[in-house]
Each structure stands twice: as C-alpha cells, then as structure tokens.
Design brief:
382 residues; mainly beta; 2 domains; Immunoglobulin-like; SusE; starch binding; 5-stranded antiparallel beta sheet; SusE outer membrane protein domain-containing protein; 37% strand; 2 helices; 6-stranded antiparallel beta sheet
Length: 382
C-alpha cells in the first residue's frame, strides 16, 4: 500500500512540473518574421472617365501573407506614394485581414488627387503595411513590417479644378473705355495674380498709367458696367458700380495697382523700376502646344509698354509652352514657384514649361516687368 502511495506521489510531482513547463512564456524571434509579398494589382492601366461609376469595383490587390511563427492576427493595408517617393506620408487605399482587397474606382481617383490635378496616366508605388493586433508571448509589440514596392499605372479622372476668375482694368488712364469682349487684351487690360486659388482675392497690375482727368474702373465681366468695382474714396472701392471712376495718378509713370476683393480695398504705388526696365523688340510663345511647335515663336503684341498679349491662339492638349524674348533663349520664362500655376502666376527665367491640360483657344498675357502671366482659355473669360 505504501508503495502505491509513493508511486502516486511521484506521478503527481511529474504532472505538476510538466504543467509548470507548459506555462512558461515563449519568446518570439522577431528576426525570423517574413514580410508579406505583394503579388498582383489589377486591372493594369485602368482608365477612369467622366462616365465611370466611382463606386464600381474595378479590380483587386493580391498578396502572399506574412509569416510570424504562430497564428498571428494581421491587418494588411495597401499604401501608395508617387513613383520614386519615400512613403513619408503615404496614402492608404484599403485594409484587409485576408490575402486580398477589392479596389473601387473611387479609391483610385481619391488617391490620384493627392499627387496630380490632371487626367493623364499616373504611376504610383504600392506596398503592404502589416500590423499584428496582438503582442508577442512576452507582451512585446510585434514589429510593423512592409512588403516590397510594386509599381502600378492608371489614368484618373480629375474634374476641372476651380480657379479664380479673370478681372480687367478699363479706362483712359491706361488704354481706353471699350468694354466689349473684342477689347479683352486692349481696352480691357487683364489684371494678374500670384496664383490661381479662388480663395485668394488679391489681383495686381503693374504698368504705365497716364495722368489727367480720365481714370479707370475694375471690370468683372466684359460688356457689363453694373458689376464693376468703382472708387469709393482713398483706398476704398465699391462693388456693383457703387462709386465713381478711380482717379488717374497725378503724374505719368509706372505704378502698381493692387486690389483686394475680399475687403474692397486697393493701393496704387509708384513702380520706379519701370522707367529704366529693359525693352524687348519681341516676345513670343513657343512650344509643341503652339501651331508652329518648337521651330518658331508665335509673336505677341505689346499693347502697352511691357504688356504682351495674344488675344487668340489655339493650343494643343497634353503639350507645353514657354514665353521667350527676341526669338532667343537668353530670356525665357516658364513655371515659377507656385504649383497652382494656370491661369495665373509669376513666371521665372528658365523655369519649366507650362503644361496645357486642355486644348482650345487661349488668351495669353505676359508682363515683362513683374513676370506675371495669364494663360486662359477664351471660353473661361468673363
């Protein structure tokens, strides 16, 4: 009987130590984690158009799951960056806990809008971010791992980005009082702006103003006096023709007129550099978007000193243009510092070519004093 009890005690002890061994924490070797592998992104070269239902499923992303050495609960997120980017601020398209995720046209289009404002082929780099929701056996968080990058090209549909409207100066202090559309670029002198954002309500014009009793007004729509901005007193203006003519300066010369439509204020200050500024014999536009391509310039007309205009020119979509002086590359002007650069902006000497997204008839204006420009389709002129 005693032998049986001793044997039973030994069995219990072995059982106890066996359970204790099973309850020990198992340390995970994070160095052996195998990252997921991005296999396919479909459809390739998909084109989103104006008629595409953005909610439609258009394809999928397929991947090989990562390996953690145990049954980990993993969430996989498809991340995107512009081709060649560093993924410092990636766009996240979709997440899944399986080995695939459905892609909709809306996902693609929304992602594209982080990198382009044009409806043309866009190449992105895609990768998977793998996150384990649980911790390792010792409570340590499992590292986030990423797949290798896979390149994906598609064409988004970007609706036309709203931009600020054109604004004109009219009056004898500049050119004349002709207020019809035929006078855009002549009596109706376009004002300029630093960028095209519609929320920015500041316009400017630097040029030669004549003294005398004949002043000017600010026109919002060709042929319409009722909606113009008028003079209300020193530094103030009224909307809807509430006021009189802006007075001409006391002396002939170059001035910079700046108007703020948000608070209905204006300033007009002398521009001393105008009197000694370089005068060009010709300034033209050149590029594969123009009728003569890169072979020759299409000359602009100097309607007022240093203000160069082409009232109507047909430009080709998907091509580019530049301004240049005297049929030479010594002085040529392209995109400046702003990214929202059409129809308004300030050009820089030797800057990149201006992209022409939509083809058609354009009005082109360049102020060679300040390098402000306007590149706008005539159908968009008010």
């Amino acid at each position: 009987m005693k032998k049986i009890n001793i044997f039973f005690l030994v069995l219990c002890c072995l059982s106890f130590f066996g359970c204790e061994e099973d309850d020990k924490v198992t340390m995970l070797d994070f160095s052996n984690i195998v990252a997921p592998e991005l296999e396919k992104v479909l459809p390739e070269n998909f084109v989103i158009t104006e008629t595409t239902n953005l909610n439609d499923e258009v394809g999928y992303v397929l991947w090989e799951k990562g390996e953690y050495g145990y049954a980990a609960s993993v969430t996989y997120t498809v991340q995107a960056d512009i081709h060649g980017g560093t993924f410092e601020e990636p766009v996240e398209l979709v997440s899944s806990t399986t080995d695939r995720a459905v892609i909709t046209a809306k996902m693609l289009n929304n992602t594209a809008m982080a990198y382009t404002i044009e409806s043309k082929p866009l190449t992105l780099d895609l990768r998977l971010k793998a996150v384990v929701s649980s911790t390792g056996g010792d409570g340590t968080a499992v590292p986030v791992v990423y797949s290798k990058v896979k390149t994906f090209t598609f064409t988004p549909y970007i609706a036309e980005v709203p931009v600020k409207d054109a604004l004109y100066i009219v009056g004898g202090a500049l050119y004349g009082w002709g207020n019809d559309k035929a006078n855009v670029g002549k009596d109706l002198q376009p004002m300029f702006a630093a960028d095209s954002k519609p929320g920015e309500k500041i316009y400017t014009y630097t040029g030669f103003f004549k003294s005398g009793s004949d002043g000017f007004k600010i026109i919002t729509q060709a042929g319409n006096w009722d909606t113009c901005y008028a003079y209300k007193g020193a530094g103030l203006m009224g909307a809807n023709n509430d006021g009189g003519d802006f007075p001409a300066p006391a002396a002939d010369g170059y001035y910079t007129l700046t108007v703020n439509l948000a608070d209905l204020t204006f300033t007009m200050v002398p521009y001393a550099e105008g009197a000694t500024a370089k005068r060009y014999a010709t300034i033209g536009v050149i590029g594969d978007a123009t009728p003569t391509g890169w072979d020759s310039d299409t000359d602009m007309v100097e309607t007022l000193p240093h203000i160069w205009v082409i009232q109507k020119i047909n430009l080709i979509a998907g091509k580019t243009i530049k301004f240049r002086a005297d049929n030479d590359w010594a002085d040529n002007w392209g995109i400046g510092t702003t990214t929202n650069n059409i129809p308004f902006g300030v050009s820089s000497n030797g800057g990149d070519n201006f992209p022409i997204e939509k083809g058609g008839e354009y009005l082109l204006v360049l102020n060679d004093l300040t390098k402000h420009y306007m590149i706008i389709r005539t159908e968009k002129l008010p």
